[in-house]
Input
Amino acid sequence: MKIKHTISDNTITISLDGELDASSSVMLDEELSNPSIMMFSKILVDCKNLNYISSAGLGVFISHLQRFEDAQIKLIFFNMQEKVRNVFEILGLDLLMTIVGSYEEAVTIAND
Amino acid sequence: MPKNKTFMRLSFLTGAVSWVLLLANVLLLARQAHDGETNIGEPYFNNLLSIVFILSVFIYHRAKSQIQKGSDFTTPLWGLFIKGGMGAYVCLLLIVGYPNINFYWVNSPYLLDIIYQVLFGFLVYFLGKAFYTWRQFILYQKTKDLQSQWKWFEILIYLSLLVPLLNLEYMNYIFLILDLGLLLAFSLYMSVHLHWVAFLSLDRKWASIFLLTAILVSAVLFANFLFNYSDSPELIVDYTDNPFILLALAFVVIYTLTSLLVAIFSLPTSKVFEQKNADLMSFQQLSQTIQQGKSEEEVYSMLFDSAIKASGADTAWLEVGTETRLDSDTHNENASDPKERELIKKIVHLVHEQTDAGQDGILVQDNLQLIPDFKELNVPYNSLLVMPLTSTKRKYGHLYLLREVENGFDQDAVNVVQSFTNQTVLTIENLHLIQESLQNERYKEELKIASLVQDRLIPKTFPTDTWFEISTYSKAAKEVGGDFYDFLQLSESRIAIIIGDVSGKGISAAFHMAQMKGIFHGLMQQDLLPDEFMVQANSALSRCLERTSFITSALYIIDYKMQGVSFARAGHCHTLYYNSMMEDTFYFQTEGLGLGIIRDQSYAKRIHRLHYDYNPNDVMVIYTDGIVEARDDAQNEYGEERLKYMLSQTYHLEAEDIKSAIINDVNDFTKDILHDDQTLLVIKFKQPQPNV
Output
C-alpha cells in the first residue's frame, strides 16, 4: 500500500495504491488523523489503483466521516474500481459518501 | 574384560612359578659352583627362566594398565611409587643388613644369591609397572602416529629379550651394540611426549614432583644395586648381561627424569595455564546455564564472579538498568562506597563525552590518580575497566572493575571480560525468549478456550420442522472470528434468523459478535419488525462500538402460516434467492446501511424492510463476505456471479446438499486457503403441512 498526496490551494488529493487491509489502514488512519488535514476544505481520494478494501479500511473512512462533515470538509472519492465500489455499495456507504467517476467530476462537485 | 583378567591371572601364575624355579635353579648352580658337584642346574635354563619371568611380569602389567581418561595423574604416580618403587627400599634394607645377617645368623654362601634374586624380582616388577605407567602417560591425548611409534618401540624392546637366549657375549657384536644404541635413542625420543605435565594444576604439580623424585630415587637405587653386585664373584648369574633390563631401566630413568625436569620448569607458568583453564570453565558454565534452568540473577552473579577472577579486580560492581545488582562487598573488604561510584560514573561520562565514543563503548582508564577529583577521594585504585552489557536490541547495564595497580587491564583481560559479558547477554536474551515463548503458549491456550466459547455461541441445530430445511456452515479464519448467525422462535409459526459480520478479525471482533447475539435475543423479545430491530440495534451498538468498527447484518422473519419472509439488510451481503415458480435465481437488491456507521437517529432513514411471499421449493442463501470475497492464487474473487450460478445448478437438491456443493466449489476455488471468516446458511422452503 502506497499513500501519496498532492496539494493545491485548499484541496488535498490522496492517492491510494495497492490493498487497503488491516495493516495498511493504520497508515491511512495516521494520514487522516493528522491535524494539518483540517486546513483543507476538500479532500479528494483517488481510488484508481486501490485494488481491495477490507472492513478495517472502510472503518478508517467511517470513523473520520463525521469529523469532516462537522468541519464542513468535503470528502470525495473518484476513479473507483468496480469491485471496490461494490463493497461501498453493499455496506450502503455510496449513499453516505460522495463517489464519482473522474477527477474532473470530483473537482466540479467539490467546487459547488 | 574377562580375557584381560585371564591374561593377568595366567601371567601372574607363570611369573610366580618361573621366579621360584629361577631361584631354585640359581641355588643349584651356586651349589655346583661351591661344591664342584654336578647336578641338574643349567646356566642356559637360567636364561630361559629369567626371560619367562620378565615376559610374564611385563604382560601382567600390560594387561593391568589402563587408558588415561581424565587429568588425574597423581594416582597412577602414587601407585607406581607404592607398588614398584618401595621394592627398592626393601632391597636397600636387605643389602644394608646383608653383612650382619650373613655374619650373625645365616652365614650361608647362598644368601647373596637369594638376595640378588629378590632384588631381581623387585626390579623387574618395578620396571614393568613403570614401563606401562609411562605408556599410559605418553599415550594421553595420543595421535595416530604416536600410537604406531609406541607400538614399534614396544616390539623392538621385546625383541631385545631374545638376545640372552642366544647365549652369547653380545658386547662382541658391533651390530647388536648399534641396534641397542638406536633403541636407546628411540627411548629418548619417546621421553619427549610429556603432554600430561601441562594438565597438572599447581598443587598436583608439586605432588607429582615429589612422587617423580621418589620414583627416580627408586630407579637409581635399583640400578646401583644391580651394577654393584653384578661384578661380585660370589654371584652365579649376572642380569646386567640382559639388554632388555638395561634398556627398560634406561627408558624408565630417562622418562622420569625428563618429566621431573619439565614439571619443575613449568611450575612458574602453571598459574597462567590455570587461569586460562578457569576462564574456559567459567565460559562453559555461563553457556550451559540455560539448560540448567538458572535464573537471571544466577547468570549475572556467575558473570560477576568469573569477571573478577579473570581480571584480578580488587573491587567491582555490576549495574543492571539503574540499580546496582551485585557488588563485591561480600567478596572483598575494600569495597567501594556509593560516593566513589558516583564519581566514577561521572568520570566515565566525562571520558565518553571527550572521546565521543558514545555511551556504550568499552572504557579502560589506566591511571585514575591523575584525575584530581579522584585523588581527593583517597582510595587506592588506579585502573578502571567499564564493560557495557549490550545486545543489538537492548542495553542491560555496565560492569565496573577496579584495580590498585596502574595499567591493570591489558588487552587480554579486556577480551576475556568482553567475551564473558557477550555470553551473559546472549544467555539473558535466551532466557527472555524462553519466558516469552511460555507466555505465548499460555495465550494460545486462552485463545483455544475463547474459540470453544465462541463455538458454543453459534447454534448447531435449528428447530426441525416440516415447512423448511435449513443447513449451516461456518468457519473462522483464526481461532475466533467476527461472523455469526442465530435464530429465535418468535411464535409457533414465526422464526427470526439473523446473520452478521463484525468488521475486523480476532478477539475484538469476537467480543462484538457476542454482544450482537445478546442484542438480538434482547430486542427480539419485543417481536420487532426487521427494520425496527436494526434501528434499535444501531442505537445500542453506537454506545459501545469503537469508532473504526461497524457491523453488517441481515435479519429475516419467516412466517410459515403466511408463507412470507420479511427482512432488512444493514450493509450485509445481498440475499441470494431461487424462485421455483419463475425458475429464476437472483439477488434481492435492497438498500440499507451497516450498523455503527451513523450513530444518531438519522439511521432510521437508511434502513428498509422488504416483504416477499415465498413458494414451496424456493431456496434462500444467506452468507457473509468471506464467501463471495474468497480469493484464488491470482487474487481473483469468487464473486456473486459464481455463487448465483452454483445455486442455479443445485436448487433442486436438499438444503444440506446445496450447502455442500457451494462450500466444495468455494474450497476448490481458494485451494482451501482461508483469508476471512466464512458463514453460509441455505434455507429451502417446503409445502405447508399441517402440524401433527
Notes: The two ends of chain A are 32 Å apart (CA to CA). Helices of chain A lie at 24-33, 55-70, 82-91, 103-111. The mean pLDDT of chain A is 90.
